[in-house]
Amino acid sequence: MQKVRDAAARMSCAGHFCQLAVALHNYSASYGDKFPPGTAWHLTLPPEERLSWMVLVLPYIERHDIYKQFEVLHGKDAPPNVSAATARIRHLTCPASG
């Protein structure tokens, strides 16, 4: 029975990876064949304080709800972004890894 669960978890992980790949493709199609930058656009924040590229892809994995919670003009640790930054997003986690 455990082998079946492990196989199902691996398949789910592969599905999440495929959904993320499609999301990146759709982002690219929306932005002139460009992948998202490494960090969200904000010229006055140092790169290590900016939001990750993953925030920019959230609408493309049907997570508009979390995307709307982020305030791109603030850093990743800013109070307005803490709640959204701690949200668990199934597309970015692998059930096989626990």
Topology:
Layout: H1 2-30, H2 53-57, H3 64-67, H4 79-85
How would you portray this structure in words?
- The chain is mostly helical and 98 residues long.
- The chain is built from 4 helices and no strands.
- It has helices at residues 2-30, 53-57, 64-67, 79-85.
- The longest helix has 29 residues, at 2-30.
- The protein is globular, with a radius of gyration of 15 Å.
> Helical residue percent?
40-55%
Question: What is the global morphology?
Answer: globular
* Mean pLDDT value: 86
Strand content: under 5%
Radius of gyration: 15 Å
Structural class: mainly alpha
Order of helices and strands: HHHH
Give the low-pLDDT segments: none
Beta-strand segment tally: 0
Number of helices: 4
End-to-end distance: 17 Å
Largest sheet: none
Can I get a quick summary?
With 98 residues, the protein is an all-alpha fold. 46% of the residues lie in helices and 0% in strands.
